[in-house]
Amino acid sequence: MSEIQVSAKFRIPKGMLEEFNQHAAECLKHAKEKDTETIQYDWFLNSDKTECEIREKYQSSKAVLRHQSNIREPLLALFKKFGSPSSLTIYGNPSSELLQYAKVSGIEIKIFTLLQGL
Predict the structure, then answer these.
(1) In this predicted structure, what is the pLDDT of residue 107?
(2) Beta strands 4-11 and 38-45, pairing class
(3) What predicted TM-score, i.e. pTM, was given to this entire model?
């Protein structure tokens, strides 16, 4: 399985949903304009709009790294305002380069490799 899936969760402080939405829109804009190997990049809100989960799917570990490069500026602005994700999960067999990049963030990362699937 060379595809990589990622789930990142952010907490949204009360009264800051509109600003969070603006940052999300900017990240999505950059991804749409620059990404060519991103299969999925969807942002979901929980029912009380205090948490956002980003569901991502890429063709490969290299595609994840290219995506991160493509959205670097708006993502750093999001991190500066809202902090790093509260959780980050990677599904698949990430390359050592991707793991090294992810570990630098200081975020606790869970990795799940495929047991079985269709």
Answers:
(1) 82
(2) unpaired
(3) 0.91
